[in-house]
Amino acid sequence: MKKLILGSAIAAVLGVASSAMAAPNTGTVNFTGSVSTATCNIDLKDSAGSDISTVDLGTIATTATAGTVVNFKLIPKEQNCLTKAAATMTWNSPTLNATGLSNSVANGTNAVMLLTASNATAQDKSVKQGNTTFDYNVTGGIKSFDYAAALAKPNANTAFTAGAFSAAATYSVAYK
User: Burial of 11 by CB count in 10 Å (0-12 exposed, 13-18 middle, 19+ buried)?
Assistant: First the structure.
């Protein structure tokens, strides 16, 4: 019986040692993808329908309470995508935090960007850490994925600091 207990103890210690020694040779690989009933090119447009390449959040004063809301749309180009009534859009960004997207500019402003999925069916339409996937169900087809973005204070008790703001996010759409 003592041999069995001693053998088990040695095996447990070797298992821990083996795991500890393997740690420097480990890592994480993130994979993303989707399966969709349609594949489409998507255009970025402002609220008036003009093509844009960047969503310009403007300049706000450090004494402001929040920035101006900027509306934009992601519009499918192909007709077969415009007739799809259901889709799921997923967002990803290295700057996602509990509020929205934080600034990626070194020594830039402390502002965060609030990004909202205007026409998604979700209760909480804010793109933020832990809330990045949004369903769309539109009778007659999804003509656009509508979003609103604005700069905001990191929290109510903190003032804005002066500086540049930049953030990037990727999205993927899976039509159902």
Answer: exposed
Reading the block at residue 35, the tokens are 């399966």
Q: What's the whole-model pTM score?
A: 0.78
Q: How confident is the model at residue 23, as a pLDDT?
A: 61
Nearest to 46 by CA among 164, 167, 144: 144
Which residues are CB-neighbours of 175 under 8 A, at least 6 positions away? 36, 37, 38, 40, 81, 84, 86, 87
* Structure tokens belonging to residue 77: 């180009």
3-state secondary structure of 60: coil
How far apart CA 53 and CA 58 sit, in angstroms, is 15
3-state helix, strand, coil in the chain (%, to 5): 15, 30, 55
Q: Inform me whether the pLDDT recorded for 119 exceeds 90.
A: yes
Nearest to 171 by CA among 119, 115, 122: 115
Backbone φ and ψ of 102, nearest 5°: -90, 170
